[in-house]
Amino acid sequence: MNKNELVSAVAEKAGISKGDAQSAVDAVFSVITSELKNGGDVRLVGFGNFSVSRREASTGRNPQTGAEVKIPARNVPKFSAGKGLKDAIN
After folding, report:
1. What's the burial of 8, exposed, middle or buried (CB within 10 Å: 0-12/13-18/19+)?
2. CA dihedral 57, 34, 29, 31 (to 10 degrees)
């Protein structure tokens, strides 16, 4: 499912227009992104948790040449599924 399909499904499920659903989906993604950017986390009980994890610098190898490559440290988004979501798909 891509974003357009998600917007259509939300519009149908909520009984609202696609424009309103598009605004709602964009707002949810925006709020989650800004909270993670500020170092916080988002906890949705029954669904899951969005958080930021720190990945330290490391050394890797270029698979074609075998040369060492320095991989810089960075923050990466992380999602942990909640019990309700796990139960729903099993």
Report:
1. middle
2. 150
Burial class (CB in 10 A: 0-12, 13-18, 19+), 3: exposed
Write the single-letter amino acid at 6: L
Q: Print pLDDT tens along the chain (90 aa).
A: 999 999 999 999 999 999 999 999 999 999 999 999 999 999 999 999 999 999 999 999 999 999 999 999 999 999 999 999 999 999
Measure the CA–CA gap between 86 and 21, rounded to whole angstroms.
Answer: 26
